[in-house]
Specification:
The structure holds 2 protein chains of 2 kinds.
Chain A: H1 2-28, H2 37-43, H3 57-65, H4 78-89, E1 99-103, H5 122-127, H6 145-149, E2 155-158, E3 161-164, H7 174-178, E4 184-188, E5 194-195, H8 203-209, H9 219-223, E6 229-232, E7 235-238, H10 248-252, E8 258-259
Antiparallel strand pairs in A: 1-4, 2-3, 5-8, 6-7
Chain B: H1 2-15, H2 26-31, H3 36-65, H4 74-96, H5 98-104, H6 107-110, H7 115-126, H8 131-160, H9 171-186
The chains are: A alpha+beta, B mainly alpha.
Chain lengths: 273, 194
């Protein structure tokens, strides 16, 4: 009986003493945190995707409080998160246009120059002699390194090339950061006209690699009445601030590379015929 | 004296590695070994806490439990001590060394329930170590954990890129790989030290 009493007493006292010590310590070592931090973190989606450039949602919230970052950098939370953050801080937020990732490659029949049997990883494939199995130096390799970077299940390999599901994509661009070919770029969610090629090679070189690649013929540039599409470095680029989605360039493109339907919804339209 | 400490250190790191031959602390070992840098963070946090916990539990045992003949309460008392200690250390770090607090991050509170920490406290008593020996055993045991988790994180990075059968992807193949690495560590158990 006495043994049990001792045991209960000793452990009870130990617990009490530790509790008191911790209570005192929490006062002594109290760190002042901004009371806005918690609602700010709650306003963010909590995916910790890193799309804002900080190591996680709470790091971003802290940076906003410290004045090191602006609200509206959270792509995953979108407009709702931006508005909520602005509300917490008591400021006006500009509504940002939703951006999604786009894989600028439609080379489903891109020519292969050799058989690659190494690690099934894009970065590994670009490290071997010849910089990967494709003739094209710019196209998607399709080993899916971007797949594992995506936290939202928004990118998949279809017909050997990566494709983004714009409905699921939050525009965090984590896929673009791991892509050794830099073939993934942000485009506005509402963009109807996209150039689905990344080849900056000169025309003949592009022709050797792929049946659909952009050869830089500038026909799109000539038909555009809004000064919205230009060929830079042998590749057509669209300025979405000016583009009105009229589709003239898509009709003019001899390679059927520019899509006048939403390319990301219906890739088949630009597949080689 | 130095010789004995060296023996304790070497056996804690290699021969009696907490992960690979005593199978303690497997939960954080499997959970946080996906990437080398997080594994490194976890390893350092565990080393830190194991060293402190060895010292604290040895003192509690020697000056509280033994005089009162309450050695059978070791497990409960040690958990209490470790939990309180980790909380205290966390608060202290947050205030005084914010950089280290940031680096250890979520791993510090997680360690409260790491059985390698409780294991080292109980083993110290079982083996009848002195205070200094206990601290050395705790510190080097933590280093052994660090070695194991960092080594294994490299293995897992390679596994991620392998084309392994669908049924084995993820945790199953990680468990098999852990078994193979443990087998490699078995090689050390033939060594006699000291």
């Amino acid at each position: 009986m006495e043994g049990i009493l001792y045991a209960v007493l000793v452990l009870g006292v130990m617990g009490l003493v530790f509790g008191l010590v911790l209570a005192v310590a929490s006062r002594i070592f109290a760190v002042k945190t901004d009371e806005r931090l918690e609602p700010l973190v709650e306003a963010l989606p909590g995916a910790n995707c890193g799309g804002c450039g900080f190591s996680g949602c709470s790091a971003y919230a802290q940076a906003v409080l410290d004045g090191k970052a602006k609200v509206g950098l959270c792509a995953a939370g979108g407009d709702a998160a931006t508005q909520q953050m602005a509300k917490v801080l008591g400021i006006e937020a500009e509504t940002a246009q939703r951006q999604v990732a786009l894989v600028k490659c439609s080379g489903y029949d891109a020519k292969v120059k050799g058989y690659y049997d190494g690690l099934q990883d894009c970065l590994a494939a670009t490290k071997v002699a010849g910089r990967g199995p494709l003739v094209c130096k710019y196209g998607c390799l399709g080993f899916g390194t971007c797949l594992s970077a995506c936290k939202f299940d928004a990118i998949h390999i279809e017909n050997g090339r990566a494709k983004v599901d714009p409905e699921k994509c939050t525009g965090c661009m984590a896929c673009a950061k791991v892509c050794p070919r830099n073939v993934i770029v942000p485009v506005p969610y509402s963009a109807d006209i996209v150039v689905a090629c990344n080849s900056k090679s000169k025309g003949p070189a592009t022709l050797r690699g792929c049946d659909v690649g952009c050869v830089g013929c500038s026909k799109c540039e000539q038909v555009c009445s809004y000064d919205a599409i230009h060929v830079e470095g042998n590749l057509a680029m669209i300025d979405y601030d000016k583009c009105v989605s009229c589709g003239l360039c898509a009709d003019a493109c001899p390679r059927h590379l520019i899509s006048d339907s939403n390319l990301r919804h219906d890739m088949d339209l630009v597949a080689p015929r | 004296m130095i010789g004995k400490l060296f023996t304790i250190a070497l056996s804690a790191i290699l021969v009696e590695n907490f992960i690979f031959s005593q199978f303690l602390g497997i939960c954080p070992f499997m959970g946080v070994s996906k990437k080398p840098n997080t594994a490194l963070g976890m390893g350092f946090a565990v080393t830190f806490v194991m060293t402190l916990a060895s010292a604290a539990t040895w003192a509690v045992n020697q000056y509280l439990l033994v005089p009162l003949k309450l050695e059978y309460m070791q497990t409960v008392a040690f958990i209490l001590v470790i939990a309180a200690l980790v909380q205290l250390v966390e608060m202290f770090l947050q205030k005084s060394v914010p950089a280290l607090y940031q680096a250890l991050g979520i791993y510090l509170p997680l360690i409260t329930t790491n059985c390698a920490v409780l294991g080292v406290a109980l083993l110290n008593i079982q083996k009848g170590y002195s205070f200094l020996e206990s601290v050395v055993y705790g510190f080097t045991g933590g280093l052994g954990f660090l070695l194991a988790i960092v080594l294994f994180s490299f293995v897992r990075e390679r596994i991620d890129h392998c084309d392994c059968p669908k049924a084995f992807r993820g945790f199953p193949i990680a468990l098999i790989a852990a078994g193979l690495v443990a087998l490699a560590f078995m090689g050390f158990s033939g060594m006699s030290i000291g």
